[in-house]
Amino acid sequence: LVTESLEALKASFPERIQFDDLDFNFGERWIPTGMFSAYMTQLYGTDIRIGYSESMDEFSVACSEKNMKITEEFCVHGYYRTYDGIALLKHALHNTCPDMMKSIGKDDNGNDIKVRDAEGIQLANAKIDEIRNGFSDWLEEQSPEFKERLTDMYNRKFNCYVRPTYDGSHQTFPDLDMKSLERRYGIKSIYGSQKDCIWMLKQNGGGICDHEVGTGKTLIMCIAAHEMKRLGLAHKPMIIGLKANVAEIAVTYMAAYPNARILYASEKDFSTANRIKFFNTIKNNDFDCVIMSHDQFGKIPQSPELQQEILQAELDSVEENLEVLRAQGKEVSKKMLRGLEKRKFNLEAKLERIAYQIETRTDDVCDFKQMGIDHLFVDESHQFKNLMFNTRHDRVAGLGNSEGSQRALNMLFAIRTIQERTGRDLGATFLSGTTISNSL
């Protein structure tokens, strides 16, 4: 039996990716720094030692004896400073470019009028590209044993997952009223793809349903939510959708499960006068499902303690990045530094407001954590993209605002609340025909 199990596991291994099919980029964190050191020692013709700090995500470069390659061939002379081969090597490792400035005259106070040195930046970029592109050529020249070892490392680290297949054909959906669905929508049976997706969500406690428009995402949501409730996988699921579609989601759910206890939020429920009462209705009742629009969901207060925890972690990350950038000194653009300092200021201001909310809150305010929602179905989930992020890159087209969107942050608070309640990952199902958009 053990032998048969081992053979079955081996048969399911992903196909090995060969060296010639791989792209190796200079500065990739999984590649041992010794390989970068060996390559640069050959390129520069002098001993180069490269180290990497995982906690700071920072490369260090040491050179015992600089030569003409470093001081002349791989060197760019800017208006204010010179970038030798060691400085450009660090940029090559991080895939960045120095922010070079030049003076075009003096202002009335005698200070330099600074503009970006496009010619200098272009020259620096060319030398950085030469370093980065040469790494692939150097790898091609190595021995078969060397290539095999590097290929093994890649396959063990990245090519070690097999996408599971889910067969949900055995499901019967005991409470589902097919006659009601046929009368209202002409639906005579559930598609095999819908059954497979519902089975996947039940098995994993959530996931991504990236079905295209017209493939029955609405019915997947309704059946999956009800099945999770029926099987005890969730006690109070919530479905949120676009304002234009959310009423149809509620009608579909009621057609599929006429006897279900559903709470559908109307515009009147979210008026200023009724909102607190409605939130307490969610909290104090055992609904099979709560259904509302994205905009209404955004008006639900989130747990201030959890907001504090997440924003404090983000502030710690920003402060760590500031330390790294300040340690790099003149190699860092002032714009990038100012951007991080502004983010730090904004995060500190948010944390102060949250601390004040915690001190002054009253018992009649019901937040998302108190409502008992333990699974969230998000229709058209691409509406909630763009979380906060940190990067050492600037002047990149399409990079977006590093502070992210408030809508995405609010969704993060809600999902972290559910995960904290259940003690598990996931706790959410994202449904969208455009899960990945063509942007950075």
Overall description:
There is one protein chain. This protein has helices at 2-11, 33-44, 68-73, 85-94, 118-140, 144-157, 178-185, 192-204, 217-230, 246-256, 275-284, 294-298, 304-328, 334-360, 368-371, 406-422, and strands at residues 48-53, 58-63, 76-77, 82-83, 101-106, 112-116, 207-209, 237-241, 262-264, 289-293, 375-379, 428-431. The protein is of the alpha/beta class. The protein has two domains: 19-157, no CATH class; 164-301 and 365-440, Rossmann fold (3-Layer(aba) Sandwich), CATH 3.40.50.10810. The strands form four sheets. The chain has a six-stranded parallel β-sheet with strand order 7-12-11-8-10-9. The protein has a two-stranded antiparallel sheet with strand order 1-2. Strands 3-4 form a two-stranded antiparallel sheet. A hairpin with a 4-residue loop joins β3 (76-77) and β4 (82-83). The two termini are 48 Å apart. The relative contact order is 0.09. The model has no long low-confidence stretch (mean pLDDT 89).
